[in-house]
Amino acid sequence: MKLLIKSGTIVTKDRTEVNKDILIEDGRISRIGEGITDAADQVIDAGGLAVLPGLVDAHCHLRDPGYEYKEDILSGSMSAAKGGFASIACMPNTNPVIDNESVVRTVIAKARREAVINVYPIGAITKGQQGYELAEMGSMKAAGIVAVSDDGRPVMQASVMKKALIYAGGFGLTVISHCEDLDLAEDGSMNEGETSTRLGIHGIPSAAEDVMVAREIILSEYTGMPVHIAHVSTKGAVEMIRQAKKRGVPVTAETCPHYFTLTEKACTGYDTNAKMNPPLRAREDVNAVIQGLSDGTIDIIATDHAPHHFDEKNVEFELAAFGIVGFETALSLALTYLVRPGILTLNQLVDKMSAMPARILKIEKGEIRAGADADLTLVNLDEEYTINPDEFLSKSKNSPFGGFKVTGRVKYTLCGGKIVYQDK
Amino acid sequence: MKLRSKDILGLDHLEPDEITLILDMARDMKRIIQSNMKRVNYLQGRSVVTLFYENSTRTRVSFELAAKYMGAHAVNVSVPASSVAKGESLIDTGKTLDVMGTDIVVIRHSQPGAPHLLAKNISASVINGGDGMHEHPTQALLDMFTMREAKGGFEGLKVAIIGDIMHSRVARSNMIGLGKMGAQVYIYAPATLIPPGIKEMGCHICQSLEEAVDGADVVMGLRIQRERLKKALIPSTEEYARFFGVDVRHLAGANKDVLIMHPGPVNRGVEMTSILIDSDQSKINEQVTNGVAVRMALLYLLAGRDEN
């Protein structure tokens, strides 16, 4: 099976090459050049399109096993493919929790059977994500996990986190920390500030995130082990990570599109699609996140794709589930809000959405070169469209971005040389 | 003129001319309450349901009497707190009441925004009877009615609100409503009970009770709940009373015709001393009477929206 991509503009983290052809054989890139004339089974005219290395999402929730009514591996992977992702790492807060080798193998086997793209499970840090005893990280790594995280349920005991960093580090696994001090967050549902006061909603102070980011940096520095800070949303977190990196602490960080596009004001009118954890923050936090992306403090953009059923969102705000879907809006939002205004170059964005997340997860992705897996995302950078959640391939439609006008649209996603998504 | 929305969700949603309309109408309604023939037929054939997910005596009775004085059918539905999360959804309950022919639903709920969710999903009018820490518009309207009746208007009026601002929907509605009508709101409370954004909402935060009360036309206390101790927000009601309880001696700097108000129920000797509560300046009982009048006015105006 041969596939030829004609006349695209290749954009990777460190190079942009116009009018290139890419020949794909047996799932891999066999040759890159100009005017390739080999006979192919299929030819894609990529004239006018940017050809990016397949996007890599280091943080999503596929809800499978246990919550297949929200999403499953098939629907989640199709949704990701539509968003341009060829590889995704899914969080372990499923039912049962991905906290042992057998569940890891089950997820991987199902992904091999059903997923249209590469799915990499992330294992739990602690058994049952309960925060006390370490999960069998070594066995889970042998079965295929790419990192460990208790995402959604922070490890509250510092002593447990310290040992988790050391033990995971011994297996070459990065710990991804959901930074939230539950005591400070109390029963909050949105950012604590003027908007929460006006709406009478219990607030989550930005300090709940900052306190834990500070702790993880201290523990990473003390142990010398890497830590990856999930979904950074506060000014304080950005500043502490920036300083830690200057000292050489092995900390990396991610943010999500909603933290550089929306403020807490999106909750006005009790819009439960603006409810997620960490919550949408104040304008100064959004500005700090953007600055952190621009100066490299924040390494990657992840989706934190968190599908929920309509019925779980069509309720009172404080009773609604936390989280929004993100696969199908992430790239368009990043292009519109970061690349168009000149905050990031397209190469930098490709680094943050493909090469760098691959490096953090230690998977061989994020490059376009002969011999590499033919995971490619073809994008029309100039196509404008209006986001319509009804068109999502995800089972869930819980997005605050309905009606947003964005520029830049995925036209094809290839995974292992197969066209797994094509925009009609 | 008519009210613009089919619902009364909060002072946040009411324009100054609508507030004036409601207060003017309430003045007429108060005459009915003070007469010996407390029954008019303005709402004959209409139905009002009070849907209360939280305990309440005065607000529920006030609405029920208001509806009955106006000639409407009034039905009370009380839903135990335990069934909020596991029982029938709010929307489904609302739709059930809707298709039974309910014209106006008065809802009290522990969840902020619950009335808004209900209003979006049913065709009946919804009146917010208090939603979590968010708003309690009928209480604020009756407070404002009481102030206007005694003081004549709001422009330049200084209102001191003392107490648990953070958890008080009464405070929020009053801050918003009084601000819209040109009054100045001064806040004094334990610092742990002042939420962020109060200044942005146009209120002044005071450093002492004396500062808050200085030159005040109205001093309003708010109920402090013992649960606040468990959340480490205040150390004791005794310390609260010592530093934040209002007593006669604090009123030296206030306007000499200062009104003493409280949404009730009062913890005597904590938020205010009995001597103040029972003084001639106290409007606390008058507030309750006015509450019925304001609610009659709201029912009348909502019912009248679809008539011509």
Cα gyration radius of chain B (Å): 19 Å
Report the CATH topology name of the largest domain in chain A.
Answer: TIM Barrel
Measured as a percent range, the helix fraction of chain A is 25-40%
Q: What is the CA-based Rg of chain A, rounded?
A: 20 Å
Question: Pairing-aware structural class of the strands and helices of chain B?
Answer: alpha/beta
Mean pLDDT of chain B: 95
Supply the CATH architecture of the largest domain in chain B.
3-Layer(aba) Sandwich
- How many helix segments of chain A? 13
Beta fraction of chain B: 5-15%
Shape of chain B: globular
Question: CATH topology of the largest domain in chain B, which one?
Answer: Rossmann fold
Main beta-sheet annotation of chain B: 5 strands, parallel
The 3D shape of chain A can be described as globular
Oligomer: heterodimer
N to C succession of SSEs of chain B: HEHEHHEHEHEHEEHEHHEHH
Detailed description of the structure:
- The complex is a heterodimer of chains A (424) and B (308).
- In chain A, helix 2 packs parallel to helix 3 (137-143).
- With 424 residues, chain A is α/β, with parallel strands linked by helices.
- Chain A is built from 13 helices and 18 strands.
- Chain A is globular and about 65 Å long.
- In chain A, strand 13 (227-229), helix 8 (235-247) and strand 14 (251-255) form a beta-alpha-beta unit.
- In chain A, the strands form four sheets. In chain A, strands 1, 2, 3, 4, 5, 16, 17 and 18 form an eight-stranded mixed sheet that branches.
- Chain A has two domains: 2-50 and 374-422, Urease, subunit C, domain 1 (Roll); 55-361, Metal-dependent hydrolases (TIM Barrel), CATH 3.20.20.
- Chain B is 40% helix and 14% strand.
- Chain B is built from twelve helices and nine strands.
- Chain B has helices spanning 16-34, 58-69, 83-86, 90-99, 114-121, 137-151, 169-180, 209-213, 227-230, 237-244, 274-277, 284-304; strands at 47-52, 73-78, 104-109, 125-131, 158-162, 184-188, 204-205, 218-221, 259-261.
- A five-stranded parallel sheet of chain B has the order 7-6-5-8-9. In chain B, strands 2-1-3-4 form a four-stranded parallel sheet, sandwiched between helices.
- In chain B, strand 3, helix 5 (114-121) and strand 4 (125-131) form a beta-alpha-beta unit.
- The N and C termini of chain B lie close together (11 Å).
- The model of chain B has no long low-confidence stretch (mean pLDDT 95).
- Classes of the chains: A alpha/beta (424), B alpha/beta (308).
